[in-house]
Amino acid sequence: MSGVLVPVPGGWRGPEAPAVVVFPHAGGSPRQYAAWTRVMAGIPGAPSVLGATYPGRDRRMSDPHPPTLQDLAREIADALACLSEPPAVLAGHSLGATVAVEAALELRRRGAVRRPPVLVVSGQAPPDLAGGGGLHRASDEELLADVSRIGDSTARALADPDVAALHLPVIREDYRLIETYRPTRRQESDMTAHIVVVRGSEDTELPLEAAAGWHRWGTRVTGPVRVPGDHLHHLTRPELALLCGGLARKGAEL
């Protein structure tokens, strides 16, 4: 398994288990999903949990950042296509939701999977409403203020100048990917996956009407499903992990 796609800590349950692949938020890492493996352990036939690792972190610390979000998605699609069995669920949060969509479109265009995985998109507007903004060009102080506003626990660590010098450039590059993003032109037949839209009840980053816009992006769209929590509910609450685990198990039974 490549450094692009890695098991979440404690998340590998063997090649026969259905797989949930998580796509982290800006500045995020698969390591932050370790709690998901504990939550899913109680699900009969628990899935493996794999994570897409973006450049600049973990095993990919020295890898160059891609020019566009689509380039990142294609790189991840390459790794997904090499799995012995296609994943049951692609679960993306915030930036990761957009990356997951583009990876799913790439797999579809290649004909790389027999059955498209369920696409769980959390904390993000649909591609036609994503993108825009200039925080990736802002000062370090302004960028740190935005990370703190959203509530990412990383912000506390970034108060240390040495930590900030290491991690703020990575966050800035992730912001650049989503702020300069323009959706890939698609045909109606491209998005055949079941899309499940999830929104935290206290998420001020994703208005309800924007979340509802996902219904323009597929013929089978569920949600928005309301779960407790703010924009980073996926790191502090179990509901999204349980939803993804249940969907993976259901898909494995089909």
TrEMBL record:
It comes from the Bacteria. The keyword Hydrolase applies. Keywords: Hydrolase. GO terms for biological process: lipid biosynthetic process. Signal peptide: none annotated. Residues 20-236 form the Thioesterase domain. Belongs to the thioesterase family. It catalyses: a fatty acyl-CoA + H2O = a fatty acid + CoA + H(+). This is Thioesterase TesA. GO terms for molecular function: fatty acyl-CoA hydrolase activity.
